[in-house]
Each structure stands twice: as structure tokens, then as C-alpha cells.
Amino acid sequence: MEETQERLLDTAAELFAKQGYAGVSMRDIGRSVGITQAAIYHHFDNKEALYVAAVTYLVEQSTLGVSEQMAAIDSPAIRLELLVGTMLETMEKDPRFRRIYMRELLEGDEQKLAAIAENAFDVFYQPLYALMVDLAPDEDPQLLIFSLFGMLFHHLEVRKLAPHLPNTLKGPTDTPSLTRHITRLFLSGVQQS
């Protein structure tokens, strides 16, 4: 990927995460990158193509080759722990994907959701699906994926609220501790089903 295209994707991802799809124009993106709006069209046919490419870029950045690492590990439990730790770490460092993902789920634009599913998730989703089948062959793999990501996303977001709640535990909420907690909890749930 050339430098200008990567800058476009990174900047577009930042703006879409902060302002949403409707809140960002191609002119805004061009201005932020330091190129003309017309120059963007050299790389992307339209705003939707740029949006899908930016979300795909974020998914690729968030997964950091974890699929390849998981493929080299036989134990489903160890693959799960690797996945949980990698996802927590990368999504904590870069919250843009979480923000876009949650906004799209809340807005429910079927066309954008379909484009994101087909383009951004396809490569990462298959190894994830296979992992769920390995962990719990009698359960619905997609429901397990949704449950796992619900835990990952919620733990990352709720840390902002937790200090203000009564009876807040003072236990560790660092990434390795959360990785162990979520992995144990998830494994416990699938082993009991």
C-alpha cells in the first residue's frame, strides 16, 4: 500500500470514528490529509468505498496477524487466550474500530453493515468461527463469537464507569488480567454447555 493511501485510510478511520459516516465529507478527509478532494478519487471511487476500506484497514490493524498465529497452535484454549489478549491490547491502544463498530450496530444501516461484513470481516471471521467450533462443537459458533466480543468490548468500555460504581473492586484491570479473566469465564461457559 502506498503512503498516501495509508494516510487516507488512517485519517478517514479517525474522522469516521469521531464523527460518524454522515458527519464526514470527502473534503474534510482531503483537508486533514493535505490533499485535494479530487485526489482522493484517484484512490477510492466514492465515500462508501473509502469508508469500507478504512474499516477493513482498522480490522487488519486490530487483528495484527492473530489468525496466522492461531493457525500454528493446536490447543483451542491457548488460541482463545491469544485471541482475547491480542484483541484487548490492540483495541485498547486504538479505539477507532470499536467506535465505528458500535455506531454501525446502533444505526443499523443494512447496506453499510453488509459491506463491512463482506469486506472487512471475511478473512478474520473464518478462523474465529473454526475456533468456536473447536471449543464447543454442539453450540452455535456465531452466538459464541458475539458473546466473546460482547465481553471484550464491554470490559474495555466499562472501565470508565467502574470507578464510580459502589462496591467497585480494586482488582487488576490490566490487559493480562482481563485476558485471563475473560478466557477463563468464556471457557467455563462453553465447557458447561
Polypeptide structure, described:
With 193 residues, this protein is mostly helical. The chain has a single domain (3-192), classed as Orthogonal Bundle (Tetracycline Repressor, domain 2). The protein is 75% helix and 0% strand. It has ten helices and no strands. The protein has helices spanning 3-19, 26-33, 37-40, 47-63, 66-71, 76-93, 96-107, 110-135, 141-158, 175-192. Helix 1 (3-19) crosses helix 4, helix 6 (76-93) packs antiparallel against helix 8 (110-135) and helix 8 crosses helix 9. The radius of gyration is 18 Å and the shape is globular. The model has no long low-confidence stretch (mean pLDDT 90).
